[in-house]
Every structure is written in C-alpha cells, then in structure tokens.
Design a protein that fits this description.
Elements lengths: L1 E7 L3 E7 L6 E8 L7 H14 L1 E8 L9 H17 L3 E5 L3 H11 L4 H27 L2
Parallel strand pairs: 1-4, 4-5
Antiparallel strand pairs: 1-2, 2-3
Helix pairs in contact: 3-4
Length: 143
C-alpha cells in the first residue's frame, strides 16, 4: 500500500510516491503534456504508476489563493480530482499546496541547483512536499 502525491500544473504533473510504511515521500517523475486540456495520456500514465507502485490513495495539491479563496487553478484542480476518481476508482484527497513551489525552489537553491535547471524539477519536488505534508499529518493524528 502506497500513497501518490500529485502537483497538477497547466502543462505538467509532478508525481511523488510514499514508501510502503507511509513515512516518506519520494519524487519519481514529471508528466508533461503539450496542451493544458489534453489529459488522456496524463491520466493513462498516472494509472500505470498506480498499478506499478500499488497505490491505494492519491493526494492532489490544491492551489488556493493566499486569502483562502479559490481561483481558476483551484477550480481546474477540482475538475482533475473528479477525473482521477472516475478513472482510477481511488479516493483523492485535496491538500492545501500554498507555498509548496516556493519551498521546493528554496530547497533546490540550498542544494546548489542552478536557477536555469530548477524549472526542470520544481513540480516533482512540489509533489513530494505535498505528499510529505499529508503523510506527516496522518502520522501525527495516529499518535
């Protein structure tokens, strides 16, 4: 049993997977698409990863505005959540992702990754932060 974390963007989806003990999150890939509305291949790739890693639950980043309102990206994420649930049959938990991209950028800066290379990894690292936050909450609520 593993949990998948997703950072859904306009042209990419960062993907992270938990370990089997549900303690740590690891980024595994970034799914890229040419057009924002073309999701069939993206969903097919997510399904393949679900099968490969025996995923039983999905955590999807929820990009709320800083004032806690829902903007266009949040609405698109909710639509993506419905598509994921219909297509995979798995529960999808929405996770407040405010500042995860900032945190991912900061982590890469501290790791010495050059600015021009950060864009290459930011979505996968953001997915890792989203999933790790969820895993930490689960672990703390069980204590």
């Amino acid at each position: 049993m593993r949990i998948m974390g997703l950072d859904f963007g306009s042209k990419t989806v960062g993907v992270a997977i938990s370990d089997s003990l549900l303690i740590t999150a690891q980024g595994i890939e970034i799914i890229r698409r040419k057009e924002e509305n073309k999701l069939r291949q993206t969903l097919a790739r997510i399904e393949a990863l679900i099968e490969e890693y025996e995923v039983t639950e999905i955590v999807l980043g929820f990009p709320k505005n800083m004032n806690d309102t829902l903007g266009e990206r949040a609405e698109l994420s909710l639509e993506f959540k419905e598509k994921l649930e219909r297509r995979t049959g798995l529960p999808v938990v929405m996770w407040d992702e405010r500042l995860t991209t900032v945190a991912a950028d900061k982590a890469m800066m501290e790791a010495g990754i050059r600015r021009e290379n950060r864009k290459e990894y930011v979505d996968m690292i953001a997915a890792t932060f989203i999933l790790q936050g969820y895993l930490d909450l689960r672990a703390n609520s069980q204590n």
